[in-house]
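Today's session is about reading a structure prediction critically. Students often jump straight to the picture, but the first step is always the sequence itself: look for stretches that repeat, for charged clusters, for runs of hydrophobic residues. Only then move on to the predicted structure, which in these notes is written as discrete structure tokens rather than atom positions. Here is the chain we will use throughout the hour.
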Amino acid sequence: MARDYYGTLGVGPKASDQEIKRAYRKLARELHPDVNPDETAQARFREVSTAYEVLSDPEKRRIVDLGGDPMESGASAGAGGFSGAGFGGLGDVFEAFFGGSGGTARGPRGRVQPGADSLLRTKLTLAECATGVTKTITVDTAILCDGCTGSGTHGDSQPVRCETCGGAGEVQSVQRSFLGQVMTSRPCPTCRGVGETIPDPCHKCGGDGRVRARRDITVKVPAGVSGGMRIRLAAQGEVGPGGGPAGDLYVEVIEQPHEVFVRDGDDLHCTIRVPMVDAALGTTVTLDTIIDGPTEITVDPGTQPGSVSVLRGHGMPKLRSTVRGDVHAHLEVVIPSRLDGKQSKLLQEFKNHRDRDQAEVVSTGSQNSGGLFSRLRDAFSGR
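Below is the predicted structure for this chain, in token form.
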């Protein structure tokens, strides 16, 4: 399972960059090995430093928000704990306080970077979720520039070393802190940490190696999906800077409400209104199910209000399985509110033949009570 980086810093998923930095500063003051030599605190400091490194990086934070873990690949957490002469975790403290990194310079980063993941949403009907569907969706993402094929240069021109940082990708400065004078390094503002510039950039992409474009993608939605599920399309996301490898595209399913059925996992629920006479004498009702079409439901003679008729195996399919849920038909007995003279007379004759049927007050604790209070009692007692 992906680690809860937000929980480690004590912030919510919607926290701003400044809130994340403040939370890290507070924890770093309490847990840094120079202040708290306890082994538990040191382990906690490493976790906090890792969380800050991930959430302060827009690309890594996007992966976290998509439900992934950018550190699963084995990348270092940046802090690495307290390592004595190397001041392993101290660099992250400097970065939190001064906006740069302390200690050894990191060097230029590669101009070619992996692309970010993308997220789209698509609406599906209940029938489409039940049977599966192939949909064509339009995406707007960065794609490889066909003018320079990702190099970012125009014609035969080549990148040159950055004059501001001398190719280091960083510029350094000295600042005063409570620990004395501290040398910090920041990404070079001219080359943005790459260490080189492009004097004659591609006229189409401006040197980025990628351009934005709309394209159609075919998505195969399997049977049994439900709202909130995401379908991953590998390498269909954003192409990275410098023509780097594309990220993944996630298509999130939004399940639209159905006019008859309410979904509960793999089961479907519906309400069937049965006239009082049909409930007493028994009848059959045709229900148009999602997959199997019209199916008859038998209403037994003497059916009481609130009864449920279950159609086994007529519900939604389980994802990647041949097993299906059930359809629960909740029977609502309809009592006429207006009767003409003839109808009233017939019902009165019927009542005269049912002398034993009398209105009575039944204890809510009675086992034979099937009213509202009885159902509430059973619900709270777990029956």
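Discussion point for the tutorial: The chain is about 25% helix and 25% strand.
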